[in-house]
């Protein structure tokens, strides 16, 4: 599946910051000592395990920022599944720039591809249902837009991007307000008609209270599959239903089969294993 890429204007400051962190105060001492200034080289960026690619543009930008003469030829696209030993991109140009930008390029590409791969694993587990995988705000500080893009590459959908683009009333909000009803009343008094509202409930009793004045979506938190199915029947299509709480490839199918619209998982962004990719010299 092809995905609309994130604009370079959004990606470049993030990548530039990562390069500045790596270069420090003196630049790449190793490469500048070992590699002649006029040396050129060709490399193949290769997948070393099965997964889903995301973040090719971050790798391209990392290399271009070290030397604009570096050529980056992608051989796959973001969202594409790859197998071990499969070439992902060809890279050619000034050797110093390639070696200096290599780690930052691989850090971004490996992490984002890991997020896409984790998302795909969940999506595959519930592919026999209509339920979609959704991410959360549990993202790496500074990388939210990139990680949420990677979720889309893996076949998932995005939850809100920040505190300002939707309302999500959680358990602590309800505790402070005193009840689900009072929390919803306060929200309706504060936000405009175009702002989507979701409320988290952790019991069928709270759900019944919410259904007296339904909002746009309900988050069914830490409910088992049987309770989730009962909750979906109670909602009866009045709200979008989302299930969360230790959602894995093992637990997601039962929740999806209970009929929820979404299953959400924080680990696909904050704890996804990096996809192993490497920069290989054709000469060995």
Question: Secondary-structure map with pairings?
Answer:
Layout: H1 8-23, H2 29-34, E1 40-47, E2 51-52, H3 56-66, E3 71-74, E4 81-82, E5 87-94, H4 95-125, E6 132-134, H5 144-153, E7 167-169, H6 171-177, H7 180-190, E8 197-201, H8 204-210, E9 217-221, H9 225-235, E10 240-244, H10 252-257, E11 262-264, H11 267-270, E12 277-280
Parallel strand pairs: 6-11, 7-8, 8-9, 9-10, 10-11
Antiparallel strand pairs: 1-5, 1-12, 2-4, 3-5
Which key phrases capture this entry?
42% helix; TIM Barrel; 284 residues; 2 domains; alpha/beta; Aldehyde Oxidoreductase, domain 3; four-stranded antiparallel sheet; six-stranded parallel sheet; 12 strands; elongated
Question: What's the short story on this structure?
Answer:
With 284 residues, this protein is an alpha/beta fold. It has helices at 8-23, 29-34, 56-66, 95-125, 144-153, 171-177, 180-190, 204-210, 225-235, 252-257, 267-270, and strands spanning 40-47, 51-52, 71-74, 81-82, 87-94, 132-134, 167-169, 197-201, 217-221, 240-244, 262-264, 277-280.
Structure, explained:
The protein has 284 residues and is of the alpha/beta class. It has 2 domains: 8-123 and 272-280, Quinolinate phosphoribosyl transferase, N-terminal domain (Aldehyde Oxidoreductase, domain 3), CATH 3.90.1170.20; 126-270, TIM Barrel. The chain has 11 helices and 12 strands. The strands form 3 sheets. A 6-stranded parallel sheet has the order 6-11-10-9-8-7. Strand 9 (217-221), helix 9 and strand 10 form a beta-alpha-beta unit. Helix 4 packs across helix 5. The two termini are 33 Å apart. Residues 115-280 form the Quinolinate phosphoribosyl transferase C-terminal domain. Hexamer formed by 3 homodimers. One of its GO terms (cellular component) is cytoplasm.
């Amino acid at each position: 599946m092809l995905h609309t890429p994130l604009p370079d204007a959004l990606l470049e400051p993030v990548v530039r910051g990562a390069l500045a962190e790596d270069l420090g105060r003196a630049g790449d001492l190793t490469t500048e000592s070992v590699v002649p200034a006029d040396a050129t080289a060709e490399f193949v960026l290769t997948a070393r395990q099965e997964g889903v690619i995301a973040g090719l543009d971050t790798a391209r930008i990392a290399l271009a920022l070290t030397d604009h003469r570096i050529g980056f030829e992608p051989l796959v696209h973001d969202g594409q599944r790859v197998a071990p030993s499969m070439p992902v991109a060809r890279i050619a140009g000034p050797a110093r720039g390639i070696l200096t930008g290599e780690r930052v390029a691989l850090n971004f590409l490996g992490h984002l591809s890991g997020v896409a791969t984790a998302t795909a694993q969940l999506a595959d587990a519930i592919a026999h249902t209509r339920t979609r995988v959704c991410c959360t705000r549990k993202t790496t500080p500074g990388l939210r837009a990139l990680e949420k893009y990677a979720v889309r590459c893996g076949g998932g959908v995005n939850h809100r991007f920040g505190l300002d683009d939707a309302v999500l009333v959680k358990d602590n909000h309800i505790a402070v307000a005193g009840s689900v009803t009072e929390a919803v009343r306060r929200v309706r008094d504060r936000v405009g008609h175009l702002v989507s509202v979701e409320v988290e409930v952790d019991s069928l009793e709270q759900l019944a209270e919410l259904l007296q004045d339904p909002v746009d979506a309900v988050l069914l938190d830490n409910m088992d599959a049987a309770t989730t199915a009962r909750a979906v029947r109670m909602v009866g299509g009045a709200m979008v239903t989302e299930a969360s709480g230790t959602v894995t490839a093992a637990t997601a199918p039962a929740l999806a089969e209970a009929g929820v619209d979404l299953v959400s998982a924080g680990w696909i962004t904050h704890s996804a294993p990096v996809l192993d990719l490497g920069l290989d010299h054709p000469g060995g």
